[in-house]
Design goal:
single chain, about 475 residues, alpha/beta, Rossmann fold, 2 domains, 7-stranded parallel β-sheet, 6-stranded parallel β-sheet, 19 helices, about 40% helix
């Protein structure tokens, strides 16, 4: 980009003596609702992590037209967070005026974090770097899984690769979350000729969204207690009372079949409903009384708004054929996508044991699992990290249907683990490993930010794991 009067007038970040002087901008992944998008939630938790570091200023930028009342409710409620629209260039570096406008907005920050937003403008990063602003691509999605499909799809080329578009853009580095690191650290470097600094940062999470139900100012005192002290002060609100009192076994001496929740129903990538359905079917064939209902959210038999798609829709046809082949099929309800908050609210008067059954393909765990753990819902999943941590979660090996059946049966029975004990173990682990304000998390995030600002971000990618 050629120098111009506008370029010369762009601000530069103020002098930086410590993290307390840092000005950070977070580019938020666009979404209709905070509670419905894991990547938008990740942006929010990243914001909390930057605040916990004591940064002088942390602002949030979002795509123009975003419904900030729903997708970015942390903008209000008495917080000091500034949210501003950003007009992303529609045609990349070719739109020089748009690039210059974005650069003018971001040039006064020391660090710009692109939270699962593709920073596809090398010229933009060059301008920012010249003025002392570092750009980091924060990748918490499943780029490798998408890219594998792009490699094998007919007519696909390098231009279709998600991570190539996101990272081969002259950024100053990339951050990945721990359960992506085994594959993505090397993959992102290869895509950039081995020159891109890539490091691992904590997968931050907080129960604030559960507690506040789209209004993050509601439980400010309790949230502060969670951040500063221990995991116990912040309990789910009264609408989740069932999750606080019902054991995952017999209630009042009467055995009730379990309600099985499957909330991750992408059929081909990242996480899938197929293996959980097969596991539920295997358990139902052995013990029909064990399951009373299976709810599959975001099922391919429905559009996002809940309306039935045309019969010719391939996903609907395959889904219908699958259910008709399962013994448990008549108990399966195909539901539109919904947030964990809304699903949990609907269980308030349900006396049945509830189990979240999850199967992750590319990831080890996600926010839905964390939400369920915090509330005390029994979880059966294929997370190696949670199996090793012994936090009251029932686990099985990836792609092992019989193992998933056994884990589901154990989660329904409770295996002698009381609700209060399971919740205590889960919250202690979540507080230590995921809370943006936990001492270890702050230390790791601080190291990542310092390295990014120093321009020496994680040469081996392992220094911040």
């Amino acid at each position: 980009m050629e120098a111009s009067d506008a370029d010369a007038a762009m601000p530069r970040p103020p002098p930086l003596r410590s993290l307390a002087d840092a000005c950070v901008a977070i580019i938020v992944h666009p979404s209709r609702s905070l509670v419905a998008s894991g990547m938008t939630q990740q942006s929010y938790f990243l914001l909390r992590a930057m605040q916990a570091l004591g940064a002088a200023r942390v602002d949030v930028f979002h795509a123009a037209g975003t419904d900030t009342a729903r997708a970015l409710p942390f903008a209000g409620g008495g917080t000091d967070v500034v949210t501003r629209p950003l007009a992303f260039p529609a045609s990349g570096d070719a739109d020089r005026d748009a690039v210059a406008a974005v650069a003018a907005e971001l040039a006064g920050y020391h660090l710009v974090l692109w939270a699962s937003v593709s920073p596809q403008w090398p010229a933009l990063h060059a301008v920012l770097r010249e003025r002392g602003t570092r750009s980091i691509a924060f990748e918490c999605g499943s780029a490798l899984v998408y890219d594998e499909a792009a490699w094998t799809a007919p007519g696909a080329g390098l231009q279709a690769l998600v991570s190539n578009a996101a990272l081969d853009a002259r950024c100053d580095g990339a951050w990945v979350i721990p359960h992506m690191a085994p594959s993505h650290l090397a993959y992102f470097r290869i895509l950039n000729g081995g020159s891109l600094p890539v490091r691992t940062v904590p997968h931050v999470w907080s129960p604030e969204i559960l507690a506040a139900d789209n209004d993050l100012a509601v439980n400010a005192a309790a949230v502060s207690a969670w951040r500063a002290t221990a995991p116990e002060p912040l309990d789910p609100p009264p609408r989740l009372a069932l999750l606080e009192r019902a054991p995952c076994a017999a209630v009042d001496g009467v055995r009730r079949g379990a309600l099985v929740l499957i909330m991750e129903s992408h059929m081909t990538d990242r996480k899938t409903a197929l293996l959980p359905l097969l596991a539920a079917d295997a358990l139902y064939r052995r013990d029909p009384a064990a399951i009373s209902e299976v709810r599959v959210y975001c099922a391919p038999s429905r559009h996002a708004d809940g309306h039935e798609p045309p019969p010719a829709t391939p996903g609907a046809a395959l889904w219908s054929d699958l259910l008709s082949s399962l013994a448990v099929g008549p108990l399966v309800k195909s539901l539109p996508r919904n947030s964990f908050v809304d699903v949990a609210r609907g269980l308030a008067r349900d006396p049945r044991p509830v189990v979240l059954l999850s199967h992750q393909i590319a990831h080890d765990r996600n926010f839905v699992i964390y939400d369920a753990m915090y509330c005390g819902i029994a979880v059966a999943c294929n997370s190696r990290a949670l199996a090793a941590a012994r936090v009251g979660v029932w686990t099985y090996d990836k792609d092992d249907v019989d193992g998933a059946r056994a884990a589901l049966a154990a989660a329904i029975a409770g295996d002698g683990v009381t609700l209060s004990a399971r919740r205590a173990m889960s919250r202690a682990w979540l507080f230590a490993e995921c809370n943006p304000c936990a001492r270890g998390v702050v230390a790791q995030m601080g190291a990542a930010v310092r390295s990014a600002l120093d321009g020496a971000d994680g040469a081996d990618g392992r220094s911040c794991t």
